[in-house]
Amino acid sequence: MLTEKISASVKERILLPELLDIVMSAEEAASMIKSGMTICTSGFGTGYPKAIPTALAESKHAKNLTLVNGAARGESHLGAMSHAGILKNFFGFLYNEGARNEVNAGSFEFSDLHLGQLISKIKNGVYGKVEYAIIECCKIKEDGSIVPTLSAGTAEAIAEVAEKILLEVNLSIPAEVEGFHDFGIDPFAIIKSPADRLGVPYIKVDTSKIAGIVITDIPDTDLFYPEIAPIYNQIAEQVVSLLDKEISEGRLPEQFTFQSGMGVVANCVMLGLMNKGYKGLKMYTEVLSDQALYAIKEGIISEATTTTLDITPLFFDDVFDNLEFYKKRLVLRPLNITNGATQIISNELVSMNTAWEVDIYGNVNSSHAMGTQMINGLGGSNDYSRNSKISIFTTPSTAKRGLISCIVPMVPHVDSTEHDVDVIATEWGYADLRGKSPKERAMTIIDNCAHPDYRAALHEYFDNAVSLCGPCQTPHDLSKALSWHQKFLETGSMKQD
């Protein structure tokens, strides 16, 4: 594209004049990617490139691609490429319904991992040579440094390791978001408070690697939160009751620092904290939701660190209308910093994450239905739970209108082991597992968390396992441990006769 034909608004976003000569269409940029290549893309909930992945999906000229991404959910990103059948492998967090269906159908290979380890694996060459990084930004500075949009994720790392870089400059995100980010940080430096900044608000880039720039104005519109059912408020009430007790007994300061996973329960917990009059809390987390932004405005949260704003379209306007307010209280950092053990331990986090099911000993399955079908990836839940001061997992006690018990004898897939789980909370109560043996854990979980319709059957299983095993450490009847799941697959219900 000739420089003189580029609009003034674009020139205000690309401040290094020589880069104006490589502004091109998404189709031209996508044509550089060839079959069999490994590409890394920016974004984590929001902030992912959309035009180039869509062009790749539509042309289908490049096949057998390996894609590495933190957690881009969009239909104009992972969804488009998975539907087009151009992926061979995907590494990152799986949070797209279409891509999930393709994985479960065997259309491409997916490898799950702790997201806190993703950047180190990229840098160590675990996924091979990275030919292209595709990064969404809102501004390119005079020296070629880039300002990402509302996500940090892996952008800094992939800009460093990739042989070539393709940039999408998204005009729908104001250039004034510069100042949200904190890059160039030593992963082992201690961040004493979430809003403290140790680095710079942009990514330093070797401009010789920039192979093309695409101008877009495509907003992030994929996220929505389902309607809040009463059961989620009930779970949240249990979590808030636990936090109240921890504070009253002196184990937790009144203005504690916490991490909250994504989803409806996390939002309800935030509401519960507001209703109980909590003020001045700090948040150090992987994703920050609409409700968390509202909590910042209301003073419930005084400052926060996250790797992405996982927000709905409604709250984009709120952020853009109050940029300076949020910049003082909110920092976007790379994934290895938000999910790093150094920061989680030093900030003494209370972690709150979601389970799909939990067994009577406290092992958590958060990613696989019936142990075989991917629901979502593991994400960063275990980065936090294994290193936090208090590790809480929440789940409704049942699913599928009561046909599935979410408290089971044995989970068929383990994402977080009993050693990383302090508390289980359902709508019926919470089980504090700290300092308890496996047998004590089992009784506590069954009595406090299981649905009444399933408690007798769980006690029966446990009692039979104790009789069968004798004085063992963790009683199990291996002939029946997964029988509940098998019964559901055969009959459509876990309910015991």
Characterization of this structure:
- By secondary structure, the chain is an alpha/beta fold.
- The protein folds into two domains: 3-216, Glutaconate Coenzyme A-transferase, CATH 3.40.1080; 230-491, Glutaconate Coenzyme A-transferase.
- It has 18 helices and 26 strands.
- Strands 1, 2, 3, 4, 5, 6, 7, 8 and 9 form a nine-stranded mixed beta sheet that branches. Strands 15-13-11-10-16-21-25-26 form an eight-stranded mixed beta sheet. Strands 18-17-24 form a three-stranded mixed beta sheet, covered by helices on one side.
- α3 packs parallel to α4 (78-84), α4 (78-84) runs parallel beside α5 (97-104) and α16 (438-449) runs antiparallel to α17.
- The radius of gyration is 23 Å and the shape is globular.
- The model has no long low-confidence stretch (mean pLDDT 94).
Give me some keywords for this one.
alpha/beta; Glutaconate Coenzyme A-transferase; nine-stranded mixed sheet; 497 residues; eight-stranded mixed sheet
Helical residue percent?
A: 25-40%
How many structural domains are formed by the residues?
2
- Round the Cα radius of gyration to an integer and report it: 23 Å
CATH structural fold name of the largest domain: Glutaconate Coenzyme A-transferase
Short characterization:
The chain is an alpha/beta fold. It has 18 helices and 26 strands.
